[in-house]
Specification:
The chain is α+β, with helices and mostly antiparallel strands. It is built from six helices and five strands; from the N terminus they run ααααββαβαββ. Helix content is 32%, strand content 20%.
Length: 192
């Protein structure tokens, strides 16, 4: 295995650096080129075909940028489950909300993120792929299905950007979230 892989080549393969300079060989062995069909996906058209309703893009509620481009990466700040009327989906998953309601909240975060990208960045067709997702679930300490909740977000990204380019590396954790929102997600996308 070539351990002198360039950063851009590594990111294009969906890679993630392990602690220090060690790299897990299985990551490289499982990497495949995106199928041609994913390269031709038109996210804007898919949103129309699926009849998805994007909520209003929220204004930053603090001292931060909603999106930031650095090199060929688009960083999106943590987004909340904003509904079409501007209200938030609140409550702890596993006590106030069921797992299924948590998944729907995570999907709604995905719609909010798309709205924010369109508002503050522009054309979704400039996005090549999803690189990294950090999904945060508002839950009690004895709730252990955070990955299942964040599947609501991940499934939407796969629908919009294609199975290969809409699926990146991911973490899903439980915590107490601001405003008692059910889910918060931040992501990194690679640009074309």
């Amino acid at each position: 295995m070539n351990r002198n892989l360039t950063r851009n080549a590594f990111l294009k393969m969906g890679g993630m650096m392990a602690v220090g300079s060690a790299v897990i060989p299985a990551i490289f062995n499982s990497c495949k080129e995106a199928p041609a069909s994913d390269a031709e996906v038109d996210p804007e058209q898919i949103i129309k075909e699926l009849g998805l309703v994007l909520p209003p893009a929220p204004n930053p509620a603090g001292i931060f940028k909603p999106v930031l481009v650095s090199g060929n990466l688009l960083y999106v700040s943590g987004q909340l489950p904003v509904q079409a009327d501007g209200s938030l989906i609140i409550g702890k998953v596993g006590s106030d909300l069921t797992l299924e309601e948590g998944q729907m909240a995570a999907r709604q975060v995905g719609l909010t993120m798309i709205s924010v990208i369109k508002e503050y960045f522009g054309d979704l067709n400039r996005i090549f792929r999803l690189i990294k997702t950090l999904g945060m679930v508002n839950c009690l300490p004895d709730f252990y299905a955070q990955p299942a909740v964040i599947n609501g977000f991940s499934g939407l990204m796969a629908e919009i950007f294609g199975n290969e380019n809409g699926t990146g590396v991911r973490s899903a954790v439980g915590m107490t979230l601001p405003l008692n929102v059910a889910v918060e997600v931040e992501s990194i996308f690679e640009l074309k």
